[in-house]
Amino acid sequence: MAVIKTNDLTYTYPGATKPSIEKVSLTINKGDFVILTGPSGCGKTTLCRCFNGLVPHFYNGKLEGTLTVAGLDVAEHQIYELARHVGLVFQNPENQLFALSVEKDVAFGLENFAMPREEMRKRVEWALKMAGISELAERPPHELSGGQQQRVAIASVLAMQPDIMILDEPTSFLDPLGAEKIFEVINDLNKKLGITTILVEHRLDLAAKYANHVIVMDNGKVALTGSPREIFSSEEARLIGVGIPKATKLYQHLKKNGVELKSVPVTTEEAANLLREVLKNA
Amino acid sequence: MSVFEGFKFRKVSSVVHNLDPRVKFFFVLVLFVMAVLFTNFLALLVLFLVPLPFVFVAKVNRQWLRSLRGAALLAIFIFATNFIFGYFYPTSLSGITQPVDTLFEYVVLLERSVAMTLRFVVLISSFSVFFLTTSPDHLGLALQQSHVPYEFCFAFTTAVRFVPVLADEAQTIMDAQKARGLELERGNLFKRVRNYIPILIPLIVNAIRRSLELAESMESRAWGASKKRTNLYELKLKRADYVLVVISVLMLICAVYVWLFVPVPSLTTLLSL
């Protein structure tokens, strides 16, 4: 079932001469884990902003084509209406936390919905637990590490119980270990709660294994869309400069040199198993 | 900016910290009014002693001392101005006539100037006790429950939240500009102020960019979804709060009574009796 559907979506920022995204037609299904990738400035962030209504309501500008998110026409619904269905986590964890304690930050969206206090308490505790940061509840956000801050940001979006969670390069300010933890949290939410996840990411080595759908954008257009294995092994993805996982690269190298693995690996473990098989046969 | 040092909050919990900020503010306000009422040294000395138990119970004595030390320069200035003006225009003071020449007159003048300085110290001390023992979060909440529009309360708490962030950022920018050869401690005063322009501009530009991202994030989390938003925390008056209210009111009544009907002797007359 499609939860996000766009048709010929084109958007130009006010004052810009050239559209940032052009004729984007996409379908994202409920429960999908989507990786959205492509070179810097290709329109990934703009597309994310479309999904929760920041475009066109916050940025103005010209939006053409149709866009339905969770059954709502984005052009006709305010950002706060969409916020009940779509949560957006930004790149810089520091700039999306504005309260003086973690729990207060997580409660921010719920306060805006005018939720009664007791219910809000429960929700906040639940969200903190899901993000694995229950012990940080009363700490001030600026004292936390980048990884912890980003998990607070995820919890604060999660507390609103959205159907769709969009994460715009959530790990670019983090170290590899912090990044891996974030991916695990996201994957948990996707698999356990069935939240449709859209992850914008450059470094695919860590994230690729969780996804079941990859979208590659280039120059404001959707260049490729399909399953991870299909996309990563394609020649086009390499030419665009997608950060193809090393396991998949190894597969391509071997193939060029006459060694054919049975299927396309995405993770190191898969590659190892496939290699073992080939070596046994040889 | 050592004067502001005493106004920085550190997260601690004590009886004083847990008092309702509105009640604490009322208490400080009463002290403030009393300090303005009296010009007498002995009365002001008593006022100086009143908030001291709070300082020790809340264990903020070090920060409190630091904020007093920060105010020292200004206090000396106030003392000097009072002394010099009292010397040249003694008409406003009782018991002194121009020219000030006897030892007694000097002592009266001295007591008077000390009293004025003490008044300033009382104000600084009581306000710093308030700010040292009230978390900005509580303060924002108090504002909100006093029917200040939420936008203002939000702006206040967010400003407090971003002070350390901006301080860090200023340091980073300073380091970056120094690495490119900017010399901050060079030249006369005017030149030194101008040296800070390459620090200020990136700092302001970054702050604006940051605020845009903040706005985006707020919008994404349903800012403005309902007219009357709720709050995770709520301030409720507890027993200790009522006690403090009663103490404050009693203090105020006593002070007004003394001010109206009881002439408080000056230290000098008391000692010369």
Q: How many alpha or pi helices of chain B?
A: 13
Distance from first to last alpha carbon of chain B: 45 Å
Classify the secondary structure makeup of chain B into a structural class.
Answer: mainly alpha
The number of distinct helices of chain A, counting runs of at least 4 residues, comes to 12
Q: How confident is the prediction overall: mean pLDDT of chain A?
A: 93
Instruction: Give the CA-based shape of chain B.
Output: flat
Which protein chains are joined by the largest interface, and how many residues does each one contribute? A-B, 44 and 35 residues
Percent helix among the residues of chain B?
A: over 70%
Task: Tell me about the largest β-sheet of chain A.
Answer: 6 strands, mixed
Computed CA radius of gyration of chain B, to the nearest angstrom: 24 Å
Quaternary structure state of the chains depicted: heterodimer
CATH classification, class level of the largest domain in chain A: Alpha Beta
Give the biggest beta sheet of chain B. none
Q: Can you write the helix and strand succession of chain B as a string?
A: HHHHHHHHHHHHH
Average pLDDT value of chain B?
A: 87
What ranges of chain A have pLDDT less than 50 throughout 5 or more consecutive residues? none
| CATH topology title of the largest domain in chain A | Rossmann fold
Helix content of chain A: 40-55%
**How large a portion of the residues of chain A is in β-strands, by DSSP E?**
15-25%
Q: Element order, helices and strands of chain A? A: EEEHHEEHEHHHEHEHEEHHHH
